[in-house]
Structure prediction request, 65 residues.
Amino acid sequence: MVCINGESKTGYDGMPLPDVLEKEKYDIKRIAVEINGEIISRSLFSETVVHSGDHLEVVSFVGGG
Prediction:
């Protein structure tokens, strides 16, 4: 089980980060991700694997005026 923005989720253990974000319906181009308190550089998304017990915080950027 992983925690994404405070919600417990199952089925993501061992999954690459981009796949997790896609299943959760995030637009990868408009977010920042922190795993276990560490900000993940967008260039490292594809090589980052989510593990059971991880805590993810995903922040979406919204434009406007």
Notes: The longest strand covers residues 55-60.
